[in-house]
Design brief:
Order of helices and strands: EEEEEEH
Structural class: mainly beta
Strand content: 35-45%
Shape: globular
């Protein structure tokens, strides 16, 4: 039996993604602090540039503006990019405030 996460949502890649340039420190039970560079984010998850020493399904906890601490699971990793799914969906009003903080230039934000 796999020790990884049992994810209920299998494919949310069609969710609206917002480009960001945000560096965070992920907390991992085995690796400790893991530097991460988030390059896009949605209410369901995020993508980082660079690779991490994690296996599919492993968890990290990050801190996001307006959201606070949130856990995410590694869904995929390929060619220097990794995709993570949040353990819960971020509420729309919180997500909008977070995007306004992470992407202050309104011309670069997706239309709502």
């Amino acid at each position: 039996m796999s020790a990884g996460a049992q994810l209920t949502v299998t494919d949310l890649r069609l969710a609206a993604r917002h480009p960001v340039d945000h560096k965070v420190i992920g907390e991992h039970r085995r690796l400790g602090d893991v530097p991460m560079h988030i390059v896009n984010i949605s209410a369901h998850g995020f993508m980082i540039k660079g690779s991490v020493d994690l296996q599919r399904g492993e968890r990290v906890t990050i801190r996001l503006p307006e959201i606070g601490r949130i856990e995410a699971h590694l869904i995929w990793a390929t060619e220097g990019r990794c995709g993570f799914q949040f353990e819960r969906i971020i509420r729309l009003d919180d997500f909008v405030r977070m995007i306004d903080t992470l992407q202050p230039n309104p011309r670069l934000r997706r239309r709502r």
